[in-house]
Each structure stands twice: as structure tokens, then as C-alpha cells.
Amino acid sequence: MARLWARTVSFDSISVGDRLPILVKWDTQESIDRLVELVLPGQPAGWRDLDTDKESAEQGRFGGMVVPAPAIVAYIAELLEKAFPIANILARGSRMEMQATAPVGPGDTVTFTGEVVGKREEGGLRLVECEIVGENQQGETVARALAVVAL
Questions:
Q1: Is the pTM of this model over 0.70?
Q2: I want to staple 79 with a disulfide (CB 3.0 to 4.6 A). Which of 12, 23, 115, 145 is the partner?
Q3: What are the pLDDT digits (tens) for 73-114?
Q4: If we measure between CA atoms, which residue out of 112, 32, 39, 119 comes closest to residue 79?
């Protein structure tokens, strides 16, 4: 099957089974610190997220800080931007649902892949459904997403 590319993609050129580009992300403690500042800014005084606050995270369920879920959503959006024009990703009818299934911590490398699983016309919109999976360096699934892009 073909691999999609934002510069040349069109509804007619897409087939079920086409693959999305591959996106690889490597996170360090420094990058996680920056991501936390970007996606969780200005929390109220005394607020602590058990996974992203350094002191709380060390005592928490993962034993340290992890990449916040909004950053994982941003990674998946970055992958989609390689496959589809951003105007279509943001268009009426487009949407994305993501489920984090395992933590991403310092030193983890996550590879995001995806494929077209559906294509339909509905309510005057031409919609392409994509399933996206993020796997860490150990082959463990850390995130799954379903994205619908209106073309």
C-alpha cells in the first residue's frame, strides 16, 4: 500500500490500507520538563500532577515523571500533519480520540505508525479514518488513536 504525504494526498488517491508516515520521538528528562511547562502551564498554587510534578512523580505509580497525555496527542497530531494538510486536520468533521495505554518516561523512544482503516462520504464531507499506534523501544503499545480527517 501507498504511504500518504500531505503535499500530494487527496480523497481520491487514498485507499484503505494506505500507511501514514512514521514519526519517532525520543524523550529525555529535559524534554519532559519542557513539555510539562508547555502543555500544563499556570496550574493553581498547590496543584500537583502525580505523573508530572517531580516530587510527587518520584513517589507515584511510575517512579518518575512521564510525558503528559496532551503531549502524546501533540505527537499524534504531528504525525497526521505529515500525511494530511493541516487545514484538513482542523476542518469541520475532523476529530481525534487518543488513549494512553502505558507511560512514556525519560529515555523512551516511541515510534508512531498508522494506516487508513476507512473512507466514506457523509453529510457532504469526505472522511478518512486512520488508526494510529505508538510503541516504545520494547514494542509495548503506549498510545492508540483514531483520527478522522475531512478532505
A1: yes
A2: 23
A3: 999 999 999 999 999 999 999 999 999 999 898 899 999 999
A4: 112
3-state SS class at 123 = coil
Q: How wide is the angle at C-alpha 114 spanned by C-alphas 76 and 31, nearest 5°?
A: 30
What cell numbers appear for 140 in the block?
A: 509495548
Among 84, 77, 76, which residue's Cα sits nearest to residue 3? 84
Inter-residue contact 145 to 3 (CB < 8 Å) = no
> What number of helices (H) and strands (E) belong to the chain?
4, 5
CA distances from 9 to 6, 17, 22, 85 (A): 5, 14, 16, 8
**CB 26, CB 109: distance < 8 Å:** yes
Domains and CATH numbers, the chain: 23-28+66-150 (3.10.129.10)
Query: Which helix or strand (DSSP H or E) is residue 95 part of?
Result: strand 95-100
d(CA 24, CA 8): 22
Beta carbons of 78 and 21 less than 8 angstroms apart = no
Nearest to 113 by CA among 133, 96, 129: 133
